Amino acid sequence: MLIHVPSAQETLNDLVARIEAEPGYKRPLAFGLGVGSVDATGTVTDAWYPYPNYREHYDIAAVLAHAIGYKNGHHSERLPLDLFEELFTAIEPHRQEVEEEVNMAAYEDVLTVLRADEEYRKRPQADLTRLRGLVCFIPEDDKGPQDRIDAIFRLHLMVYRKATWREIQGHRIASIMPEII
Q: How far apart are CA 112 and CA 116, in angstroms?
């Protein structure tokens, strides 16, 4: 994955305006960065999204979208520590503009967890479960959860009382994650 890092000379508002004016870009209904456990088969077994965003913080959504090449639609993926750090670097030039932004503190927490996991991996007794950074975008024209990362993110939206069961299309989560029903 190629991370597109924005220029430090642009203000956050200028950068967001430029990104949102790009052909095909649409603001997401919801988005978030988190950390998830990935087992030996590559399945995300659980996740933590410290601050799921629902109809808010479109400036950070635009910067993150730009950094990973997202334009619109559903998008979720696992990110190893080095790519997650690059995502954080994409926001860093604008840190002063978003200092009060809860997302910055949440993403720093995720980075701390991912870095601790990297240190744990150096031990000979480390198990096969890995922690990975997760990113999830849900579009305005939502059709329900598309994968486990998406389904778990939707549950976080509900637990944090950002969205209702109906708004996140909770009834469709069982088709992705039957073990939680």
A: 6
The tokens describing 44, both together, are: 């995300």
- Find where tokens 């913080």 sit: 57
DSSP string, 37-94: EE-TTS-EEEEE-SS-EES--HHHHHHHHHHHT--SS-EEEEE-HHHHHHHHHHHGGG
Domains plus CATH for the chain?
12-180 (3.30.70.2010)
pTM for this prediction: 0.85
Partnered with residue 132 across adjacent β-strands are: 36
Q: What is the pLDDT along the chain (181 residues), one digit of tens a residue?
A: 445 555 556 677 888 899 999 999 999 999 999 999 988 888 888 999 999 999 998 988 998 888 888 999 999 988 878 877 877 776 776 666 665 567 778 888 888 999 998 888 787 766 767 888 899 999 999 888 999 999 999 999 999 999 988 888 888 888 887 665 5
Closest CA to 114 of 128, 95, 134, 97: 134
CA atoms 139, 142, 148, 151: torsion sign: positive
Instruction: Report the alpha-carbon distance of residue 2 to residue 87 in Å, rounded.
Output: 10
